[in-house]
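Sequence, C-alpha cells reproduced for absentees:
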Amino acid sequence: MTNVDRTVAASAAAVFGDRLELAERFVGLLTEHGVERGLIGPREVERLWDRHILNSAVVGEQMPNEARVVDVGSGAGLPGIPLAIARPDLQIVLVEPMARRVAWLDEVVETLGLTSVIVLRGRAEESSIKDDVAGADVVTARAVAPLAKLCGWCLPLLRVGGRLVALKGTSAVEEIERDRQAVARLGGADPRVETCGADVLDVPTTVVVVDRVATTRRRTRKDQGAYRA
C-alpha cells in the first residue's frame, strides 16, 4: 500500500487480513477507471481507502455468517465489493440499473475472482429483481435514497427477521425521526443507529438498521408522500 497513511494501512490490514491484496487490486481498478467511467468523482481518488473501501467493508459487522446479502444500487461496487473481499463467507448480489455500471461490476467480479458475488441489472422495486433475490438475510445500500423510500424498495427483498443495513451520514437521526411511522407501515421495526468499525477506524461508519418484522402493507397516500421526500 503505497502513498497511504500508516493508520489507514493498519486499518486495512486489520479489516482485510490475508485478502488485503484483493482490496488493493480493487482500489487500483477504481483509481485507474473510476473517474473516466463516471463511478467516482475526481476528488475521491485520494480518499478511496478511508472514505469508501474501509467505510464499506466494516459494515460486515452487522451481518451473520454465510448470510445472503443484496447490495441495492451498487454503483461502483460499494459497499458490496469490499464486503465480499472482507467476508468471503457472504453470498452477495449486486443490483444496479445502469448498463455501464453493470459492465464495470461484471469486470471487477471476474478480474478479482469473486465467486461469491453475482451482478443483476435492474431496480430493487422491479418484480424480476424481487423474484430473483427475495428472502435475503441482509439488504444494504449506500447513498441511494431517504430512509422511507429505501425501506419501500428494500424491505420486500428481505425474509421476515432479515435486516436492512443502510450506510448513512450525519442525517441518520433526522431521517429516523422523520420516517419512523412510514417504516413501521412498510413492515420494519423501529429503526436504530449503529456504528461499525469503531475498533479499527478513526471515523466509524454510521448505519441505520431496520429489521423486517412483518410483510409489507399496501401503500397508502401517506406512504406515497413519504416516498417523495
In short: The chain has one domain: 6-227. Residues 62 and 179 are 22 Å apart (CA to CA). Residues 6-227 form a domain with the Rossmann fold fold (CATH 3.40.50.150).
